[in-house]
Design a protein that fits this description.
mainly beta, five-stranded antiparallel sheet, 13 strands, globular
Length: 155
């Protein structure tokens, strides 16, 4: 079982309006860890490698392997596996991978770390910094000691 007992990637909506994730399906172009931020490419799905300063990334989160058959977050997708990702919609929560060493508080903006994980976003409030695309907001207060699953909500 994963760190802090998280067993599912899609947590659900804040209300009961949409009781299922919006699924995007494709072949794994690289090895994909459940909870990773992924992108659609011509060959299927791959780990998002786009820098946070390049705007236009979709909010796609790799679901647990075999989520439709009771799979777990501990099994990675291998290259060529049929991969399922959830397209985050407003009001939905996911357990997504956050990079090591991030001191998060609830409501903190998160952006792409260019390796499938999320990191604390640089926002215009940081003087002289280039702003980054905010994909999610943290829904937990935690300091990550390794890349770990953290509950987030779509920005």
């Amino acid at each position: 079982m994963s760190i802090i007992g998280k067993r599912k990637i899609w947590v659900g909506p804040a209300d009961d309006a949409n009781c299922h994730p919006l699924i995007v399906e494709g072949l794994a172009v690289d090895a994909i860890t459940p909870g990773s931020i992924v992108e659609q490419v011509s060959g299927g799905l791959q780990t998002l490698s786009t820098a946070a300063t390049i705007f236009g990334a979709e909010c796609l989160v790799a679901l647990e392997y075999g989520c439709h058959t009771g799979g777990t977050v501990d099994v990675d997708y291998a290259i060529g596996d049929n991969t399922l990702a959830g397209q985050a919609r407003s009001g939905e929560f996911y357990n997504a991978l956050v990079a090591t060493g991030q001191a998060l508080t609830k409501g903190m903006p998160l952006s792409s770390n260019a390796d499938g994980t999320l990191k604390i976003a640089v926002t215009p409030a940081v003087v002289g910094a280039t702003s980054e695309q905010v994909l999610f907001y943290s829904d937990e207060t935690v300091t990550t000691t390794a890349a770990q699953l953290v509950r987030v909500r779509k920005a």
